[in-house]
């Protein structure tokens, strides 16, 4: 029965730059000597990691994956550790010297300013690196948003009251880091009557009288004409007096 093995230290999720080297740790106690086997899961395929049979699993981060450790004793009892996520950020290796980084949160994606129609979805996004992986808390106008504790803030149907200044705090045991503050504008769309008025204003301009004048002077099998440039100029003046919008092209 599994109570024969007690996990005393669970591995923890991390969020790191690509190429970063670190160690996942798992510790357990049992009545006999214990054996460890680490597993990883990527795109829903779970497999044992060859040779990963120690308490510590050294990793050089390449892609985001999930990990767990199985511990068994000599009586065929077995337990699995928590699944942990190793989140790998592909584009932030520059500008972060790993030897200086102690695992405190570093913001790598800031939310962006948005204008959203009433009733449409609002999505804000941020991301931070950290060891352990940071937890997130969003704020609107300085007020903590009780249920917005993920990297993505998601509001299915935006209301005017959702307008304001948003930011997010990423924190772990080493400290906290805040994203940039961004302004979000939630506005009404034009009612149908105003749409119609706008159309009446715009479409006469779009469907007004347009004249295209082309003055050719250089012909391949004909002598040059006397004055096509002058003709086009005089004709365009005449058409403009008749309220045409004139586009003139030469050769």
Describe this structure in words.
The protein has helices at 192-206, 228-241, and strands at 5-9, 14-17, 21-25, 27-30, 35-42, 45-48, 56-60, 65-72, 78-80, 84-89, 106-109, 114-117, 122-125, 127-129, 135-140, 143-144, 152-155, 164-172, 175-178, 182-187, 210-215, 245-250. The relative contact order is 0.13. It is mostly beta strands and 251 residues long. It is elongated and about 105 Å long. The N and C termini lie far apart (92 Å). It holds the Pfam family Peptidase_C14. Residues 5-81, 105-185 form the Ig-like domain. It comes from Eudyptula minor.
Topology record:
Blueprint lengths: L4 E5 L4 E4 L3 E5 L1 E4 L4 E8 L2 E4 L7 E5 L4 E8 L5 E3 L3 E6 L16 E4 L4 E4 L4 E4 L1 E3 L5 E6 L2 E2 L7 E4 L8 E9 L2 E4 L3 E6 L4 H15 L3 E6 L12 H14 L3 E6 L1
Parallel strand pairs: 2-10, 12-20, 21-22
Antiparallel strand pairs: 1-4, 3-7, 5-6, 5-8, 8-9, 8-10, 11-14, 13-17, 15-16, 15-18, 18-19, 18-20
Mean pLDDT metric:
86
- Roughly how much helix do the residues carry, as a percent range? 10-25%
SSE string, helices as H and strands as E: EEEEEEEEEEEEEEEEEEEEHEHE
Report the major sheet: 6 strands, mixed
Count, helices: 2
In whole angstroms, the N-to-C terminal distance is 92 Å
Strand content: 35-45%
Q: What best-fitting shape do the alpha-carbon axes yield?
A: elongated
Q: What low-confidence regions span 5 or more consecutive residues with pLDDT below 50?
A: none
Number of strands: 22
* Structural classification: mainly beta
| Radius of gyration (Å) | 33 Å
